[in-house]
Design a protein that fits this description.
It comes from Stigmatella erecta. The chain is of the alpha+beta class and about 130 residues long. The chain has a five-stranded mixed β-sheet. Strand 3 and strand 4 form a beta hairpin. The chain is elongated, with a radius of gyration of 18 Å.
Length: about 130
């Protein structure tokens, strides 16, 4: 069972991955192409060329965890990055929906923007 909080960052690797890769091969992709730090607690999603298999790699504080899912029918959606980007950042909810087989058709921000404290000028204006 995968239990993640909203504070966790999730990255989907944009290119198809050889699903024979394990901890070391996927970890090398994270460090070389995604510029990520594998041991910081971020979650990384990889999808195979046929889009029937997906792997999730993350560090749980004591070791690396590699989850694999193979679909018997259908295909996983293709994570679409912006041009030139090696990955797409997802929310934990989007990762969960992706693994359930949903396709991300669009993204809408449901949470308000982060609060920014502003100083107010006190005094009279002429």
């Amino acid at each position: 069972m995968l239990t993640l909080t909203r504070a966790v960052r999730v990255f989907a690797y944009a290119a198809a991955v050889d699903m024979r890769k394990g901890f070391d091969g996927l970890g090398a992709l994270v460090e070389q192409h995604l510029g990520g730090q594998l041991l910081q607690g971020d979650v990384f999603l990889f999808v195979g060329r046929s889009r029937r298999r997906a792997k999730v790699l993350y560090f749980d504080g004591t070791g690396l965890v590699l989850l694999t899912k193979r679909l018997f029918q259908g295909r996983f959606a293709r994570p679409w990055p912006e041009k030139g980007e090696a990955s797409v950042e997802l929310t934990v909810a989007e990762l969960s929906l992706f693994l359930e087989g949903c396709e991300l058709a669009g993204r809408w921000k449901l949470s308000p923007p982060a609060f920014e404290e502003k100083t107010l000028a006190v005094g009279r204006t002429p």
